[in-house]
Amino acid sequence: MSEEESVQTPRGGNTSSETVKRLEEEGEIAADYLEELLDIADLDGDIDIDVDHGRAAVEIVSEDSGDRWLRRLVGTEGEVLDALQELTRLAVQAKTGERSRLMLDIASYRRNRKVELTDIANEAIAKVRASGDRSSLAAMNPFERKVVHDVVAAAGLVSDSEGVEPNRHVVIHPA
């Protein structure tokens, strides 16, 4: 396969082999950074690396899914996870010289939250379709808003974000 040919990434999306290689390198740099962080904090955990929809995806996992320290790394409503993700992105940028869109997950928090947000979005979509009125959702972080926007677009409706952080929220409009 030539460098210009596209490959199917493990979790969807076509990405050139050069891009996949760069994203895998980002994942490796992030994993090294996170392993050092876990060592400093004297915490155990495994790091999984993937490429997901054109992004490097890294997850900290533990054999003991109920491990309290993993929940502490997520924090209330994911705020510690968001901070760790930003620090990890900065570490990758320091090594590569390029901005990273890396996604960090810990103990499947983001994966589980995505399921919850999909349900919330689908309920709001049904409400908008039934009433013909727009619907405003609760304030969400950028990851959460992106999930909702994707669900709304797949349903054939329109959404946008309104407000200023930390009160930025999604508004769903009738088609």
Outline the structure in words.
- The chain is an alpha+beta fold and 175 residues long.
- The protein is built from five helices and eight strands; from the N terminus they run ββαββααβαβαββ.
- The strands form three sheets. Strands 3-4-5 form a three-stranded mixed β-sheet, sandwiched between helices.
- A hairpin with a 6-residue loop joins strand 7 and strand 8.
- Helix 1 packs across helix 3.
Compose a concise summary of this entry.
The chain is α+β, with helices and mostly antiparallel strands and 175 residues long.
List keywords for this structure.
175 residues; alpha+beta; three-stranded mixed sheet; globular
The percent of residues in helical segments reads 40-55%
Principal-axes geometry comes out as: globular
**Main pleated-sheet profile:** 3 strands, mixed
Summarize the helix and strand pattern as letters: EEHEEHHEHEHEE
Structural class: alpha+beta
Question: So how many helices?
Answer: 5
Total strands: the figure is 8
Approximately how much beta-strand content do the residues carry? 15-25%
Radius of gyration: 18 Å
| Cα-to-Cα separation, first versus last residue | 43 Å
Strand order of the largest sheet: 3-4-5
**Which blocks of ≥5 consecutive residues have pLDDT under 50?**
1-13
The average pLDDT score comes to 89
